[in-house]
């Protein structure tokens, strides 16, 4: 049984009820979990759904918006252009994300996983709420390059949206808040907690000897930042990529020199799927990521104290074990869950 | 952060409820059984002694001797309290007003449910407090469609001034100041409380009339005291940080009492 925070109990009950109304038997099995829930062993979520409880209609509206290029100026780009389900909602194989007019963004699209546990968004944490976060891609000239007012205008003219807003919020009136909250609901339900790693944690599977050795190394070298079970501690840190920072990272938000080159520790869930890696997508394989930690850590004034002694000692055999462990973080249920796909 | 969040919500809540309650004998305006009335608060933008024309057609001179015209001047004012004649503070229900003279949201607001009585001053915040800023998508004056939000570094633009000046040195001679900064722990904090006394003239709330409180905002203060803002040195300030904080220190005293119509 999942641990359920009291705040979410009504939502969970609603969701359980709704999912039990699904039609085919097969779906019942696949959709056994409610849309929003707290997986076993997870901490409490950030609380940003407090004024925006997940409902089936709100989630469905959010999903429709997420996959609809109507949010972009020239109707060519939707959220999934850069956040693809098969890549765990990251943009696979693009180091810098592409938006309208093929303009290149300056950062790599992160995977969207377990965002209900985050209270700040973007590599630098500049966005402070899951509801306001989508304003950035919608209005950014290198992403969707649209205005919220024009999105509202277009949605109002569509034949489907007014009734979807009525189902979600009880009124046909399309507001920016309605749009943003629906997207927040959809994204908050992108919960990944059924990887082999999770099954092992929950006593439902066993690691191979190699994976297990990898896990031991991981716990000794990586979890101080990639904290279990979210595999991020959600803080901002410099993991030694550079000494001079083309992207100031967290300092862009705080303007503090002591934050230069610090980025939000990314989750490692589904990490095999969400290549390339790092805020600018500079490393295209996990092998190169491990090589970074064992041979190219650059010391600078903001290097994380835990890395201040430089490269980690990781042998080739240990590297193979670590890679085997990282593969257990892939959650097939998540990337194939039809509820998260375009309908 | 994650573990702190519930605590932060509680703290935010306490902050919302008690903002402006640094006087011991604070009372809330939402008390029941108290006779109450309505008042109007009006903001008039001025440049020294003349009223501000924000359609770009008038030329003004700032304290650095630079000539400029204004195409946009909008600001948020929020978290109002009234000061009673005995000095007690009455916190009004939380409200956020986007003052945009000549624009969508206009320059005046009606405030209802004010307990009847005589008031001698007003206190409010220029901008939107941090508690509200971390609460997600908002409606009303805080609707992001008004273009008064930052998306890459969340926050409401507290004060937005845009215009043209030959001194700007930019391609189209445009200058733009979008001032924000709510994160208390950073060196970007640009929120300011304003306390305005009505002098000898009491502001009297009754159950029948709609008295008007007229305040003015002098744009010249945006450019001076304590920081000499020169358009040529700093034509564009659209992110938080020291320049924004300096400008906010300037405009912190731009609001003044104008007159009361009881």
Share of helical residues of chain A: 25-40%
Portion in strands of chain A: under 5%
Largest sheet of chain A: 2 strands, antiparallel
Given helix and strand content, the structural type of chain A is mainly alpha
Element string of chain A (H = helix, E = strand): HHHHHHHHHHEHEHHH
Low-confidence stretches of chain A: 1-31
Strand content of chain B: 35-45%
- Quick one: how many beta strands of chain B? 18
Quick one: overall form of chain B?
Answer: globular
CATH homology-level superfamily of the largest domain in chain A:
Cytochrome c-like domain
Output mean pLDDT of chain B.
Answer: 89
Shape of chain A: globular
Mind telling me the CATH class of the largest domain in chain A?
Answer: Mainly Alpha
The CATH architecture name of the largest domain in chain A reads Orthogonal Bundle
What report would you give on this structure?
The complex is a heterodimer of chains A (343) and B (262). In chain A, 35% of the residues lie in helices and 1% in strands. Chain A is mainly α. Chain A has 2 domains: 3-192 and 332-340, Cytochrome c-like domain (Cytochrome Bc1 Complex, Chain D, domain 2, Orthogonal Bundle), CATH 1.10.760; 196-327, Cytochrome c-like domain (Cytochrome Bc1 Complex, Chain D, domain 2). In chain A, helix 3 packs antiparallel against helix 7. In chain B, strands 1, 4, 5, 6, 7, 9, 12, 13, 14, 15 and 17 form an 11-stranded mixed β-sheet that branches. In chain B, strands 2, 3, 8, 16 and 18 form a 5-stranded mixed β-sheet that branches. In chain B, 38% of the residues are buried.
Key terms for this structure?
heterodimer, A: 343 residues, mainly alpha, Cytochrome Bc1 Complex, Chain D, domain 2, 2 domains, two-stranded antiparallel ribbon, globular, disordered N terminus, B: 262 residues, mainly beta, eleven-stranded mixed β-sheet, 3 helices, 18 strands, 39% strand
């Amino acid at each position: 049984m999942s641990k359920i925070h009291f705040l979410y109990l009504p939502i969970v009950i609603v969701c359980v009820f709704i999912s039990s109304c699904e039609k085919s038997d097969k779906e019942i099995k696949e959709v056994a979990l409610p849309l929003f829930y707290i997986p076993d062993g997870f901490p409490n979520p950030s609380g940003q759904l407090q004024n925006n409880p997940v409902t089936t209609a709100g989630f469905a509206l959010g999903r429709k918006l997420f996959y609809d290029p109507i949010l972009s100026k020239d109707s060519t780009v939707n959220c999934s252009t850069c956040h693809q389900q098969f890549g765990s909602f990251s943009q696979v194989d693009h180091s810098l994300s592409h938006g309208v007019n093929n303009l290149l963004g300056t950062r790599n699209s992160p995977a969207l996983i377990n965002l209900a546990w985050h209270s700040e968004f973007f590599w630098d944490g500049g966005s402070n709420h899951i509801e306001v976060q989508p304003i950035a891609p919608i209005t950014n000239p290198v992403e969707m390059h649209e205005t919220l007012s024009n999105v509202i205008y277009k949605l109002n003219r569509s034949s489907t949206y007014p009734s979807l807003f009525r189902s979600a919020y009880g009124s046909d009136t399309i507001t920016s808040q309605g749009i943003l909250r629906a997207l927040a609901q959809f994204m908050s339900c992108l919960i990944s907690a059924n990887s082999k790693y999770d099954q092992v944690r929950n006593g439902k599977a066993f690691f191979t000897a190699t994976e297990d050795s990898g896990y031991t190394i991981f716990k000794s070298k990586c979890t101080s930042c990639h904290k279990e079970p979210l595999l991020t501690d959600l803080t901002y840190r410099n993991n030694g990529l550079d000494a001079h920072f083309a992207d100031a990272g967290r300092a862009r938000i705080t303007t503090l020199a002591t934050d230069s080159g610090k980025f939000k520790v990314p989750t490692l869930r589904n990490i095999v799927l969400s290549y390339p890696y790092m805020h600018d997508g500079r490393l295209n394989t996990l092998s190169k990521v491990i090589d970074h930690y064992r041979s190219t850590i650059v010391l600078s004034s903001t290097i994380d104290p835990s890395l201040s002694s430089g490269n980690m000692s990781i042998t080739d055999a240990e590297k193979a074990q670590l890679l085997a462990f990282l593969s257990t973080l892939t959650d097939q249920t998540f990337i194939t869950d039809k509820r998260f796909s375009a309908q | 952060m994650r573990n702190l969040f519930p605590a932060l919500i509680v703290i935010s809540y306490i902050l919302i409820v008690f903002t402006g309650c640094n006087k011991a004998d604070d009372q809330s305006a939402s008390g029941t059984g108290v006779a109450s009335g309505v008042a109007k608060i009006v903001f008039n933008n001025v440049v020294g002694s003349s009223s501000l024309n924000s359609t770009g057609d008038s030329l003004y001179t700032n304290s650095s001797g630079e000539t400029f015209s204004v195409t946009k001047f909008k600001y948020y004012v929020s978290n109002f309290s009234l000061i009673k004649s005995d000095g007690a503070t009455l916190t009004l229900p939380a409200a956020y007003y986007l003052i945009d003279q000549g624009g969508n949201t206009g320059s005046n607001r009606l405030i209802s449910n004010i307990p009847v009585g005589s008031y001698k001053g007003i206190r409010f915040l220029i901008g939107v407090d941090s508690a509200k800023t971390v609460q997600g998508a908002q409606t009303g004056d805080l609707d992001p469609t008004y273009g008064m939000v930052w998306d890459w570094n969340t926050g409401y633009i507290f004060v937005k001034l845009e215009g043209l000046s030959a001194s700007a040195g930019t391609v189209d001679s445009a200058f733009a100041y979008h001032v924000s900064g709510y994160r208390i722990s950073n060196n970007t904090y640009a929120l300011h409380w304003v306390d305005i006394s009505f002098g000898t003239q009491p502001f009297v709330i009754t159950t029948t009339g709609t008295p008007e409180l007229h305040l003015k905002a002098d744009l010249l203060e945006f450019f001076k005291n304590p920081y000499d803002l020169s358009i040529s040195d700093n034509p564009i300030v659209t992110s938080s940080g020291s320049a924004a904080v300096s400008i906010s220190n300037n405009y912190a005293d731009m609001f003044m009492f104008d007159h009361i119509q009881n």
